[in-house]
Amino acid sequence: MTVSNSTNEQQTVMLAADVNSYSVTTVNLAVEMAASANSELHCLFVEDEDLLQVTGLPFTSEISLTTGRERPTSIDQMRRSLHSVAQQFKQTLRHEAQALQIAWSFDTVRGRIREISLKPGTDVTYTILGQAVLHRQQTRRIHGPRKILLIGNDSPNQKRALEMLLRRFGHQKIEVSLVADDPASEVLSEIASLIKTDGQEMMLTVFDRNQLDSLLERTGSSFDCAIISKHGESDERLRILKTLRCPVILVA
Known about the structure:
Layout: E1 13-18, H1 24-36, E2 41-48, H2 49-55, E3 61-63, E4 70-72, H3 75-100, E5 104-111, H4 113-118, E6 126-129, H5 135-143, E7 146-151, H6 156-168, E8 174-180, H7 186-195, E9 202-208, H8 212-219, E10 225-229, H9 234-243, E11 248-251
Parallel strand pairs: 1-2, 1-6, 2-5, 7-8, 7-10, 8-9, 10-11
Antiparallel strand pairs: 3-4, 6-11
């Protein structure tokens, strides 16, 4: 099912989330990205294939968080639950999109978020992937600096994504970790100039590409958002997504 308030069929910003990663914060991020890019926003609610398969196994059971009671799982019940979350997702999208007056559309698909990351549409400039965030991480981030991971390439679209995030976090303290192939690149100079914007307390730390794995191992769960290229090696991209616990903006 698709709902849209625009006749423009080209999608340049897309949000994909599932039952574990859907949140009002992530929807709001995607809406702001679409508004910044002057683009229509297309959202996908992904019915997790792995979750449905596990639900259908004879030895799988569900334990209530409120009563502690155990009961057999049902694929039909799980599908109803997923449908309910999808409708919440759609309602949130409608509310946030109307607030910024952007065109939007919504679809439900069955699959896996990681597959979306490997096959973003060729006409999609920004693909935002919802990621599950632990409650203790959310609580910690409210009181600490906002942390952004930027794995740089030569795409000018990365600069726009970073500009949007800096505006989004307002006058909060911001820490940007930039992983760059070439520390002397023009892109790095442009990003450094953004970090020096007056009125915000910001810090930029630059890492070589060969430091990426150790950086993710130490701090992968502490970022509020990440910006990475949708090009390059798929194995590396999947490894990054597996480590991060924050929304990810894939940039063309």
